[in-house]
Amino acid sequence: MEAVFRTCAQTGLKIHNQAERLIKVHAVAGVFAILFGGIAAVLVLLTRWPAVHLLDPTSFYRALTFHGINMLIFWIIFFEIAVLYFAGPIVLSCRLAWPRLGWAGFGLMVAGSLLINTAILAGRADVMMTSYAPLQAVSYFYLGWILFAVGALIGVCNFFATLVVARAERTYEGSIPLVTFGAATAAIIAVFTLAHGAIIYIPTWLWSLGIISYIDPGIYRLVWWGLGHASQQINVATMVTIWYLLATLTVGATPVNEKVCRSAFVLYILFINLASAHHLLVDPQLSPAWKIWNTSYGMYLAVLASMIHGMTVPASIEVAQRRKGLTKGLFEWLAKAPWGNPGFAGMALSLVLFGFIGGITGVTFGAEQINIISHNTLRITGHFHATVVAGTTIAFMALTYYVLPLIFRRYVISQKLATLQIYLFAIGMTIFIGGMTTAGSYAIPRRHWDVQFATSQFQPPVEAAAFLFLGIMGVGGLFALAGGALYVVLTVGTVLFGRRVPDTPGAVPLAALPQDKGQHVPISGTLVLVFVFLASFIIYYFLNWKWLADIWLVK
After folding, report:
1. Angle, CA 286 vertex, CA 282 and CA 289 arms, to 5°
2. Where are the alpha helices (DSSP H) in 209-287?
3. Using one digit for the tens of pLDDT, what is the confidence trace for 407-434?
4. Alpha carbon distances (Å) from 28 to 1, 120, 149, 228, 504
5. Of 247, 259, 402, 555, most Cβ neighbours within 10 A?
């Protein structure tokens, strides 16, 4: 297949038409997934909110399974494969290595997602997202997982092959750009994540067909979390990559120290998968030594990587803004940042919400002792909504407002509504996560249909304050859902009705790189923010030890 290119009038990059088409179809599939998952989210939210309690138990677990898989897997991974097709052939201005295989991979991902969704909606897979054995779904549910994983793996391999093509054809000089390096990190994590998926889902599929008779539930849990949590680590690497990209597109920022940034990405590759173990901290079959090793020393090196990125991204923005003359006081560079640009607002809110809520709670709940008072409560659900939704999803939404004019070549139908969408979703998620996490502090369970256990023989006491926070969770969730719906309306509306972007330079406003005069530029504002973060971290961490000590009295 002969490669056909166009030159982007806005960025000057050579764009292979096959890569561009694959970005479009993966992005569209992702939007369909967030639409389906969002509809299920309404049903789950209005059932978890005791004042409404909408669904019966069977419908609730079905909606929860559908919501979790469409949001955590399909929306995220379709978008991430689109990012790989951008960070490889587009950023490196080269041809895509295997266009036909790319389409085959996309077809497998679509077929797999349709099989899984059909099984859930038909009531043949009420097994929740984890599908823990001995719960068993219909065989085509597991087949769908295998097809989806193989399709995604083809997309990942296509990215690596494209790096080889770019190197062989010398389309770039020196090291690959940081955005491509970050995407490569996500792709490497994806390889061993998908390998865990194959190891656990192929035998489970054979078990569902009756070919093998038994799946060890303990082994299943251990291997499954190598897929379940590691897939979220792909999100982290991709999200951080998007932060760097958006910082460049919106304020003209460049990394303050590329070697440090790249080293932090390498720490992800080496250590981030150890965090999967914190899902098994109350599992009786695993030894205390295994749990402590996997959730302490090694995992903290991955945490260090996130803290490095959490400093270098705002530092690069501060340097760029100060070079433009915004040098007054500690925070003029931040106060006069382009907060009306949905790309910048989304990047900044994603960074703050991921770091201050998702990051701090994740490390705290990952400590074995504190995990005892948070495991299987809504605190855990609040944590991963802070990382995957408030962090990753907002970053993806922010990037969408650049993908639409640069790849689909359509102006967003309303830039003001796009900005409103980012703030509405972020504020809604903040309220939702705050209510959910605090309700979890009152031991409200994360998976049960009825938090009051009203139909059970024994009803555990539920403090009145818990219902207040569940109500706050409900209100915040409705705001966030409105923001999510607006995102779907804006993206679909832009693709169908958006004004076409002309092929003239400057038609899409992109930030210019500020002139580097070789002078030292302070990052004092960033350092203040870093110390605020560290103080918050310390206070929350030791509060949890205080709460643990109050429950578990030792004399």
Report:
1. 100
2. 217-228, 230-251, 258-271
3. 999 999 999 999 999 999 999 999 999 9
4. 25, 22, 19, 24, 26
5. 247
